[in-house]
Amino acid sequence: MAEDIKNVNIGMTQADIDAFVDIVRTARIMQSYLNDETVHGVANVMTPMLKLLNGVASTDLVDVLERSMQDPGLDKALMNPPKVGMYGALREMGDEDFQKGLGIAIEFLKALGRASEDIGE
Fold first, then answer.
1. In this structure, what are the phi and psi dihedrals at residue 57, rounded to the nearest 5 degrees?
2. pTM, to two decimals
3. 99 vs 1, 26, 49, 104, CA distance in Å?
4. Which domain of life is it from (predicted)?
5. Hey, which bits of the chain come out as E strands?
6. Average pLDDT, stretch 45-71?
7. pLDDT at residue 1 above 50?
8. 3-state secondary structure string, the chain?
């Protein structure tokens, strides 16, 4: 019977068969690893992450971050970061984009501070 199976042409190469065997072995390892304790641990980690993701997704923060990450000026600065001292930071205070970004950062920090008060209660 085993010899009959070897002679059947199913259009798979030996590499395909080896890959399939690896997938089955990996599935067996995962099956033995996944138990109630592991699933519960993963759920405990993922729950706060999903809450945070939901909070971020329900604001315009995602759109703002996406647009800022696509800014050519940011890409250029990542490749060759400018050195900015105290006077350079003060000079940037006159830039409208810097002011807006600083305003967002300050409001975020204030919201973070307000939220941290709720934790202690």
1. -70, -25
2. 0.52
3. 78, 53, 31, 9
4. Archaea
5. none
6. 88
7. no
8. CHHHHHHCCCCCCHHHHHHHHHHHHHHHHHHHHCCHHHHHHHHHHHHHHHHHHHHHHCCCHHHHHHHHHCCHHHHHHHHCCCCCCHHHHHHHCCCHHHHHHHHHHHHHHHHHHHHHHHHHC
Say how far apart CA 11 and CA 93 lie, in whole Å: 67
* Spacing of C-alpha 99 from chain mean position: 28
69: tokens are 């990450």
Average pLDDT, the chain: 85
For the CA atoms of the chain, what is the radius of gyration? 27
The mean pLDDT of 28-57, rounded to a whole number, is 86
Distance of alpha carbon 121 from alpha carbon 114, whole angstroms: 12
In whole angstroms, give the CA distance from residue 118 to residue 50.
20
Query: How many whole angstroms separate alpha carbon 114 and alpha carbon 116?
Result: 5
Rounded to whole angstroms, the Cα distance separating 104 from 110 reads 10
